[in-house]
């Protein structure tokens, strides 16, 4: 199903798309890990200053760029900027030039799309405030919170705050929207079980850490190893014991994640983990230490933005290319921190390459998605701020 001609709809010339594509490929060649995005930040800041944006650097490698055009609403658009510690398997003219690092999640494309939209919007007339947020350290789930804790966005009362993520299984040119959550919360847990070690011949005297650990794993497997109707999944990914062939372990360590699509589901799952661990350890007469590290809240989309974002998506991709039948993912993104504070929408952009999944060594952002992505941000700016190019 053919998308609208974005160049014609918004007078986006081929030169802008070509420059955006070159930016994307430069960013792909020069990936930087979470919290180390110094060269990336320098390119972003220099580009935006040349376009006339007020640029603020803070919170390590975060960038906030602002255009103020009179009185009106405030729009925030966010792109993540960090790469991953992965050796790229692709043989491409623009493949990573940094050993052991690559943009395997498409953040190079996210940045380029927002920079392309920034160029168009710098020439536009509108009423209100446009804020572009280039966020570091999404891959380690700290960047959004760091920017918020540093007060980088305290001066803005956003009427709409949006972000996107490319989606390999979604055909290029399509956009997927979700009425509620698009991505789950993610919290990490560790459980240390402490018992009494004994010779295997005297297990009747032992306080079995292995038995308790196995019971915990099997109980989680039975109740939450697959996504429930409530949108919860709990997984144990580490199991480590200090025992020997002739001595039962005194300690066993378990670790894993808790994921949920709702705030209530998140709290319910964490409470379940605490209560179940206590029950099992009481039965085995052993001690336990449960530690929960909250990582990301869910990306929950605001109902008040649903109509506006859908209208913008139709303008950018065409009505037949806007999908609402794609289920949310149990993967996480720290965009959820922004969604806790302002009316937000987190949008999926088709990357059209299901055989090259996110975080795989063969992944590459599909440049054919760039015009639709730029068009989406321009369309949202038009609807929120009244952005148009002067005649």
Structure, described:
With 391 residues, the protein is of the alpha/beta class. It has 2 domains: 6-183 and 298-385, 3-Layer(aba) Sandwich (Aminopeptidase); 185-296, Alpha-Beta Plaits (2-Layer Sandwich), CATH 3.30.70.360. Helices cover 32% and strands 24% of the residues. It is built from 10 helices and 14 strands. It has helices at residues 6-10, 14-29, 38-50, 107-122, 143-149, 209-224, 263-284, 306-317, 336-339, 370-385, and strands at 54-58, 62-69, 73-80, 128-135, 160-167, 175-176, 181-183, 185-194, 232-241, 251-260, 287-296, 299-300, 322-323, 344-350. The strands form 3 sheets. An 8-stranded mixed β-sheet has the order 1-2-4-3-5-14-6-13, sandwiched between helices. α8 crosses α10. The radius of gyration is 24 Å and the shape is elongated. It starts with 5 loop residues before the first helix and ends in a 6-residue tail after the last helix.
